[in-house]
Design goal:
Keywords: Membrane, Transmembrane, Transmembrane helix, Transport
CATH architecture: Up-down Bundle
Strand content: under 5%
Pfam family, one: PTR2
Main location: membrane
Radius of gyration: 26 Å
Strand order of the largest sheet: 1-3-2
Distance between the termini: 61 Å
Protein name: POT family-domain-containing protein
Number of domains: 1
Family: Belongs to the major facilitator superfamily. Proton-dependent oligopeptide transporter (POT/PTR) (TC 2.A.17) family.
CATH superfamily: MFS general substrate transporter like domains
Number of strands: 3
Helix content: 55-70%
Structural class: mainly alpha
Number of helices: 24
Length: about 575
């Protein structure tokens, strides 16, 4: 009688590798549905004929998604009112038609919100888990985050606004909050994917008799869809905070997300025994640097730096190589992924418009009794509805038809949708300028509103939401899958770092974020995104052909032990050589 342990040797290695903090039942809960069935790796013929499906998601992954929900509830609850908080002068009574506190104008508001985005996404590049580990890094920066929240809430009180403490308090708080955000963001994304431990595809027979291939690619796609869904449920906090700023005041708007951050810290601390987390390894930067340095000395590029080849061509260099052949393959795969990320600043430039200039645009339109900055919540509402449809119907349906929509194709679609959003927004801006009573200069009018409904903005947010499904979610998935285990937080940080370059581009556009130039700004951004979409597909579509093979690059437990022992031996050799 076949026992549960009778799976393929590859699968067994996967189960046993780094499972000291998680039970095997959490790795593949569905692998053991049929007690007497083996799960072999798919053959070439099965790859051609069987459809791909996702595996079950471990329970610990849901716990990480809950952490991200709480943090994003806080983040978007804060940033939702930021544009009005900076742009408009303080209100004397509530409810306020144009709530505000600083009265700095649209250009300053756009510049400061852009700086905040820049700061939030440059800190992941500074902070990594190479020494502390993901869990300790998240705890540390959650504490820093909390300090910034307290300062922001305190300086948003009526007394602080009246005493002109609001502006310096805001600057200090966003610097602290941005630092905390970066430390959390770069580590929580790879942490959620680390909860799934399988590295290889296998064939499985479903209860309805269908034979399918369970793949890590489909599973990670599902994990990051759910992760992003949790982000957008949390971002709906901006509905509450924008209503609070209008009807009560900014202190109340910021108190709500501050209080919500407390459960985030509690979940992080109480659930620490549930997480699967890879131990930190601080030498990865040094090793990668040495590989690049060696590649300058030997012919053949990075492949020639594999120790097995160095022992033949350059024995003197091979003696000091602390890496193995698999590390070089992992590094090459990582570089290919990072090359794709170089296009993302243009995408994030499109996306960032919904947090500043589209809010200001809504302020020049008729919004009825709702605040102008509530319009941005159309984006997460669309995502909350659309992500489950894509995850449960569209993607599985396409896989059933033999079209699994590999990452580069999805990213290309995302850029096209972002370009469509900006092109439509440019058209709406032109329509605003053609509408009375203020035409091209609504911001100079008494009410600042032309006679056109803010409902015209809905397609802008709809297309941006679609672009996030294809570009942003896939970018997270791609950053995780293509990075070796030792570099996942670093590569995720590099992906998030592309937001910083988008912020720099947004800074360059601040001089044209004034009437009557706004429609030309949106047009230029739309053209840039569309051109990038074409270039991404031209230069990187071939990556989709090797997507599955690239993801399979990795090391098993024996290779990891041998790798560690080799590093220790080389370190001893270098120490002895230095002593001599």
């Amino acid at each position: 009688m076949a026992e549960k342990s009778e799976v393929t040797s590859t699968q067994q290695t996967t189960y046993e590798h780094e499972t000291t903090k998680v039970e095997k039942s959490q790795v593949h809960t569905d692998v053991y549905d049929h007690e007497f069935e083996e799960y072999p790796e798919p053959t070439d013929e099965e790859w051609k004929t069987l459809r791909e499906v996702a595996d079950d998601i471990p329970k610990s992954a849901y716990l990480v998604i809950l952490i991200e929900f709480c943090e994003r509830f806080t983040y978007y609850g804060l940033t939702g009112p930021f544009q009005n908080y900076i742009q408009n002068p303080a209100s004397d009574s509530f409810p306020a038609d144009h709530p505000g506190a600083m009265g700095k104008g649209q250009q300053t508001a756009t510049a400061l919100t852009t700086f905040f985005q820049f700061w939030c996404y440059i800190t992941p590049a500074i902070v990594s888990d190479q020494w502390l580990g993901k869990y300790k890094t998240i705890v540390l920066f959650a504490a820093i985050y909390m300090v910034g929240l307290v300062i922001l809430t305190a300086t948003a009180s009526p007394a602080a606004i009246a005493s002109d403490a609001v502006f310096p308090g805001f600057i200090v708080s966003i610097i602290i909050i941005g630092f905390g955000t970066g430390g959390i963001k770069a580590n929580v994304s790879p942490l959620v994917a680390e909860q799934y431990r399988s590295r290889t595809a296998y064939v499985k027979t479903l209860k309805n008799g269908d034979r399918v291939i369970v793949t890590p690619q489909a599973t990670y796609q599902k994990i990051f869809n759910m992760f992003y869904w949790g982000i957008n449920v949390g971002s709906l906090s901006a509905i509450a905070t924008t209503e609070l700023e209008k009807n009560v005041g900014f202190w109340a708007a910021y108190l709500l997300p501050t209080c919500m951050f407390v459960p985030c810290i509690v979940v992080v601390i109480l659930g620490h025994k549930q997480y699967v987390s890879t131990p930190p390894r601080g030498s990865v930067f040094v090793e990668a640097g040495k590989v690049f340095w060696f590649s300058r000395k030997v012919k053949g590029g990075l492949d020639s730096c594999k120790p097995s080849l160095l022992q033949i061509s350059h024995p003197d260099l091979a003696a000091s190589a602390t890496w193995d052949d698999i590390f070089v393959d992992e590094l090459k795969r990582t570089l290919r992924a990072c090359a794709v990320f170089c296009w993302f600043p243009i995408y994030w430039l499109c996306y960032s418009q919904i947090t500043n200039n589209l809010i200001s645009q809504a302020g020049t339109m008729l919004t009825g009794n709702v605040p102008n900055d509530i319009m941005q919540n159309i984006d997460p509402l669309v995502l909350i509805i659309t992500i489950p449809i894509m995850d449960r119907l569209v993607y599985p349906g396409l896989r059933r038809l033999g079209f699994p929509m590999r990452p580069i194709f999805r990213i290309t679609l995302g850029f096209i949708c972002a370009a469509a959003a900006m092109a439509y927004t440019a058209g709406i801006q032109y329509k605003i300028y053609q509408t009375p009573p203020y035409y091209y200069y609504p911001s100079d009018g008494e009410t600042g509103q032309n006679w056109i409904s803010a409902g015209y903005q809905i397609p802008s947010y709809f297309f941006i939401a679609l672009s996030e499904i294809f570009a942003s979610i896939t970018g997270l998935e791609y950053a995780y899958k293509k990075a070796p285990q030792s570099m996942k937080s670093i590569v995720m940080a590099l992906f998030l770092f592309t937001n910083c370059f988008a912020s720099i581009l947004a800074f360059a556009l601040v001089p044209v974020t004034v009437d009557p130039k706004l429609h030309w700004m949106f047009t230029g951004i739309a053209c840039a995104a569309f051109v990038c979409a074409i270039l991404i597909y031209i230069f990187h579509s071939k990556n989709d052909l090797s997507d599955v093979e690239d993801d399979a690059i990795g090391r098993n437990e024996d290779q990891t032990d041998a790798y560690t022992q080799h590093k220790a031996t080389v370190a001893e050799y270098e120490a002895e050589k230095g002593a001599l």
